UniProtKB/TrEMBL annotation:
It comes from Flavobacterium noncentrifugens. Residues 24-266 form the Orn/DAP/Arg decarboxylase 2 N-terminal domain. The active site is at C328. It holds the Pfam family Orn_DAP_Arg_deC. Its EC number is 4.1.1.20. This is Diaminopimelate decarboxylase. Its cofactor is pyridoxal 5'-phosphate. It catalyses: meso-2,6-diaminopimelate + H(+) = L-lysine + CO2. It is an enzyme of class 4 (lyase).
Amino acid sequence: MQPKELVQLAEQFGSPLYVYDADKIKFQYNRLTSAFSKVKQLRVNYAVKALSNVAVLQLLKSMGSGLDTVSIQEVQLGLHAGFPLEKIIYTPNGVSFEEIEEVATLGVQINIDNLSVLEHFGTKHPKVPVCIRINPHVMAGGNTNISVGHIDSKFGISIHQLPHLLRIVENTGMHINGIHMHTGSDILDIEVFLYAAEILFDTAKHFKELDFLDFGSGFKVPYKKDDIETDIEELGKKLSKRFNAFEKEYGRELTLAFEPGKFLVSESGFFLAKVNVVKQTTSTVFAGIDSGFNHLIRPMFYGSQHHIENISNPKGKERFYSVVGYICETDTFANNRKIAEIKEGDLLCFRNAGAYCFSMASNYNSRYKPAEVLWIDGKGILIRERETFEDLLKNQVMIEL
């Protein structure tokens, strides 16, 4: 999308504003499926937690995607968006057993990552097919908060607990139809991913009636110019060859599954915010915007970087700014960042705002959540209205004093 188009959308729908480019989502989806075109049965399950707007889910459904969900609410969103039950996998962590049973009743694929839950579920529902999430004890990810395959992670059943796992399966007679892993987000080295994949293959040999192997995701996207990213084409070439060889060795047709979130939607997203104040202190020039970590928490939470442009003055002389929000705590988006000269009233654009941005937004400081727009076929379509004061009060109850 061009700066001019983004400025027009902000004028039309106000700021702050999230905008998603449908063409970029389609491009990334096709890039992933093309990279694994040598695999006979490939399934892409979009990770709903990255961006859960129903219109975005509908777009992905139209391309043939399935869904990876982590809560019953995400399952319900997927059903609301029209996804068939067989295209949804549910991979919770630390949820109640009642929620797992409720999802199973719907007919969605269950993925269990806890030995005690596995035994309990297998004892009560031995005929319900279950996928098992293993922890390969492989460290991957750009931040400890998004590395989920290491030895101290709360996710998955340790690969060292395989004998116990097999005993549970044998004792309950339950049907295991899939094996799953996820090492973490922002995978830089595909050799680490391939190493973890070998652990998955070795685990799969212990189960004779598998339908699929789920390799998770975590593919890194570039956050700035010349930034490194996961070489998805090289990974596709190497993993496809290895998967096809394993399938022959296994003696049964298998589906290769992934659950990308950030890879599909991150680069499609633009977050637009207006500059309220430009403040010079003894050492810093602050650009204060009409937003804060209530709308975009990733820089503060993960230390993530979002490229910031002044789309009101894209060719202006560059100066150094610290971009901050209006929350009554430190909410710094960027420190000492080189940006085209900023004036009050200018519109700043944060790139890579499609994944884990709106989905982690809150009403902190009693601020409204922003609107969302999908840019598709050359026009902007409102896919979420901006909140109002009535939305803040909706579930609150006043009392008589």
